[in-house]
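Running co-folding for zinc ion.
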Amino acid sequence: MNDMRGHIARLCENLVHLRRYAKAEGLSSAVNGLVDDARAGEDIGARLTDLLRRLGGPEDSQPFRKVPGVILPGLPAGHTAAEVYICPSGLCLRSWLRRPGEPIPMCEIERFRLRREQG
Ligand SMILES: [Zn+2]
């Protein structure tokens, strides 16, 4: 289950850039299909990896380094002073560390604004 939510987070974190690259390659419908299936709770891991490969990104972790914010795969204990934001739905495992002055992003899958994690 966490694997699935991890795949969704990987899609969420990269979606803005994925959409742009996919559009240039004529693969927008593939991206839209992934988003629909992620919202439906389907396992998108293999297809996401395939799509990232076709768009020339590494198939694991973050392919596009321009994604704002810092991804914290396993936040170590004791970082409670940082403002960590998470997707409110629980479907997506994305976490995001806010830097001063940065606007709070949306979860690209669920269309909710990320909310601050309660420490
Ligand atoms: Zn998300």
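Result summary
The pocket of zinc ion is lined by residues 9, 12, 87, 92, 94, 107-110 (CB under 6 Å).
Strands lie at 70-71, 84-86, 95-97, 115-116.
Job closed.
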